[in-house]
Amino acid sequence: MTDTPAPGARRGTAAAFAALLLAVLSFSLMQTMVVPALPDLQREFDASTTAVSWVLSSFLLTASVATALLGRVGDMFGKRRVLIASLTVFAAGTLLAALSDSLPLLIAARAVQGVGSAAFPLAFGIVRDQFPRERVPVAIGLISSTFGIGFGVGLVVPGPIVDALDWHWIFWLGLVVILLGIAAVTAFIQESSVTNPGRIDWAGVVLLSAGVVALLLAISEGKSWGWTSGGIVGLFLAAVVLLSVFVYAESKVREPLIDLELLRRPAVLTSHITALIIGFGMYGAFTLVPLLAQTPSQAGYGFGASVTEAGLFMVPMAVTMLIASPLAGRIGAAVGWKLPLVLACLVGVVGFVVYAGAHDTEWTMYLGSGILGIGVGFAFAALANLVVSAVDRSQTGEATGINTIMRTIGGSLGAQIAASIVASKTIPGTRVPAESGYTTAFVMSAIALGVATLAALAGPGRFWGRTPAPVTPAPGAEQSPSAA
Question: What tens digit of pLDDT does each residue of 20-71 get?
């Protein structure tokens, strides 16, 4: 008897993995594809900057809630069927956005689109349930990298689309990708036998949703409302109260929405804290770099780039991320996940130091993006694998969903604070941000990633040479191993 996988098994697993990548890519693209079109939307609907910002905020709010809720529901009732359902709702929201002829309708459509965020925790769970265990780390690394790659590519692609057609085509083309993802998941993914039956804790759903929405709303609107305004302070207080009540209520429920004992595990807790700090530090680059590139050179810095040209500064990040994520998976599988996570933070520090100290030429900005892409790729892969390797298979969706929320909250807070720093310093007599604002924001991100390095080092396990606990393979996986 030989251990060589059958060609049919290899093709089947490869097709399943491609289906998952397509599904998560469809969501990650739509996170940012609308960003380059915001000026067009503001002009067409004659809206204020605050009003048009809700095109992003509504998406973020529902995505944060759906990630945790549907990750848990997938663990309970089957990850494949919940993934197909979430992508179907996502497609409906995208169709509604493509047909929108008013700003309120577009904002509502973007809120519906946010349900597609469940694709990531559900995809992680499917990989762990159905893939051979030796392939799980690399597969999770590649899926994790898709989050950042789609985020970056979503800033590049819309420019030519909007210039040649109009903003509606962003959603029409996005809808095609989503429908292909639904078809691929339906055709090539089998339902897992690994479930964690139970009842939905609806009180927990309401409390968690309200708390996270209050927190993210305060973060996203802090700049426009004023960070010390009564509304923002009230939202922060409401978030603290609601999430505190949620934690207390979950400790009393027999079948909680979030297993608090799971969050107390050192590896899981460290991963969530590090994800929060990494999100805070890294996400500023996604918005600040294109803005810096578009600044007219007459300001003494910047390159006067168009929207399309500014998006190209993110391409090196997407390329190196695609290479770094599977590499991090291989390193983590060999020596443990602490090393790639620490490396992610240190490489990120280097990338932001390049941004801060050498943003006067285009090639150094491309270099900084390439370096940062390595850090982001390592971080996303290591964080997802750390969580997956620390929990039971029936809790994968729940645990990775919370980790995604932590990264989202950190990223939202970091991006808003970075934008506020840049906006607070302008060239005298103009509304153009001063160069020192960008330098300060980049230094802040470098410091945040230095703090994330300390958080990663504080986690359990040795820095080098630890053999990670084996991932429990899906039934029959050892008998029919195959390549992802």
Answer: 888 888 888 888 788 777 777 877 888 766 677 788 778 877 887 788 778 7
Q: Measuring CA to CA, which residue among 410, 388, 415, 383 is closest to residue 399?
A: 388
Q: How far, CA to CA in Å, does 336 sit from each of 51, 187, 250, 478? A: 46, 34, 32, 22
User: How confident is the model over 376-393, as pLDDT tens digits?
Assistant: 888 888 888 888 877 777
Nearest to 92 by CA among 152, 179, 190, 21: 179
Alpha helices in 131-192 (DSSP H): 136-156, 158-164, 168-188
Hey, how many other C-beta atoms are within 10 angstroms of the C-beta on 159? 18
Q: Which secondary structure element, helix H or strand E, spans residue 302, and what is its range?
A: none
- Are the CB atoms for 93 and 113 separated by under 8 Å? yes
Tokens (6 digits) for 206: 């309401």
Residue range 107-138, pLDDT digits in tens: 899 989 988 888 888 888 888 888 887 788 88
* C-beta separation of 152 from 312 below 8 A: no
d(CA 259, CA 71): 13
C-beta of residue 402 within 8 angstroms of C-beta of residue 388: no
Length of the chain: 484
Torsion of CA 85, 87, 88, 94, to 10 degrees: 150
d(CA 223, CA 220): 7
Residue indicated by tokens 């080098």: 464
Q: Which residues pair with 86 in a beta bridge?
A: none
In angstroms, the Cα distances linking 71 to 74, 110, 161, 188, 394 are 5, 20, 33, 20, 11
On the question of pLDDT at 358 being above 90, the answer is no
Question: Quick one: DSSP state of residue 350?
Answer: H
Beta strand segments in 256-298, E: none
| Residues 10, 480: Cα–Cα separation, whole Å | 9
DSSP assignment string, 5-43? PPHHHHHHHHHHHHHHHHHHHHHHHHHHTTGGGHHHHHH
Amino acid 346: pLDDT: 94
Give the predicted TM-score (pTM) of the model. Answer: 0.77
Q: Is 426 helix (H, G, I), strand (E, B) or coil?
A: strand
